[in-house]
Write a structure and sequence with these properties.
274 residues; 21% strand; two-stranded antiparallel sheet; alpha+beta; Glucose Permease (Domain IIA); 41% helix
Length: 274
């Protein structure tokens, strides 16, 4: 091989490798040592811009912009500023999370209110439906209610009349009725008395529009309270065998004007409900 090394001789392979090795970047500039964030690139570009602004004949606006960029870079490098920024970001994140929780809480409250309102509406509807279905029990036929009065019970024989019995006045009439038979108001009126009474056991008094008071005695229970308004045919009590009684029945007294009892037979006959 010729030892000529003139300028027109092409470089050998060994020379090329040596040249390549000399042209490589130092290890400190490799990818492993490069700045890992976009902040490093921004820092570099800002520095180049500042240098260009200082050497440019347009030193006015360009120089000011470069100076502002340089100041921004300096601020980003301030550890306290970075800490403050992180604190503000964390605070904003917490506030956003708190707002979401409050919104969810409000939505839950609205949903619960709607559920409660619907439940109240359902209960009101049930009560309305029950009231609409409620009718006087065991109402009489049209002939017996034409006068606006009804018998005190749907059926039952007259077993005892008004008069002296065993040395004392039997002040009413008796109807045979098993315990628990519904007893009705004979017309529209107001309950003026109810509860236990000596001799009568459990009783109830209903006063009607003409002032007459009917008394039902020996009851098993009452179904209306004092002061309650009742309609003709409405159940006000149930027959029984309480007080001075020899068997289950209804004892009925008629007291005009709320005074002393009279024989109910004529009064009931006049109204067609004997």
């Amino acid at each position: 091989m010729s030892e000529y090394s003139g300028r027109h001789r092409p470089p050998t392979r060994a020379e090329r490798r040596a040249l390549e090795r000399r042209s490589r970047l130092p290890k400190s500039f490799s990818a492993a040592y490069a700045l890992p964030t976009a902040a490093a690139v921004t820092l570099a570009l800002t520095a180049v811009g500042a240098t260009a602004a200082q050497s440019s004949p347009f030193s006015g606006e360009v120089a000011e912009q470069a100076s502002a960029s340089l100041n921004a870079t300096a601020l980003l490098e301030d550890p306290q500023l970075a800490k403050d920024v992180r604190t503000e970001v964390a605070t904003a994140s917490r506030n956003s999370s708190g707002l979401s929780e409050r919104r969810r809480a409000v939505a839950d409250d609205v949903a619960e209110s709607q559920v409660r309102a619907q439940e109240r509406a359902d209960r009101d509807k049930e009560r309305t439906d029950l009231a609409a279905k409620k009718k006087p029990e065991d109402t009489q036929d049209a002939e017996t209610t034409a006068s606006g009065w009804v018998r005190p019970l749907a059926s039952g024989p007259l077993t005892s009349g008004f008069g002296v019995r065993w040395g004392r006045l039997h002040a009413g009439v008796d109807y045979g009725a098993s315990v628990g038979t519904p007893l009705r108001a004979m017309s529209e009126g107001t309950v003026v008395g109810a509860g236990p009474m000596s001799g009568y056991g459990i009783y109830i008094d209903v006063e009607y529009a003409d002032g007459t008071v009917s008394r039902y005695g020996h009851l098993s229970s009452v179904a209306a309270s004092v002061g309650q308004q009742v309609a003709a045919g409405e159940t006000v009590a149930y027959s029984g065998n309480t007080g001075r009684s020899t068997g289950p029945h209804l004892h009925l007294e008629i007291r005009p004007g709320g005074g002393e009892p009279v024989d109910p037979t004529g009064w009931l006959t006049e109204r067609g409900i004997l």
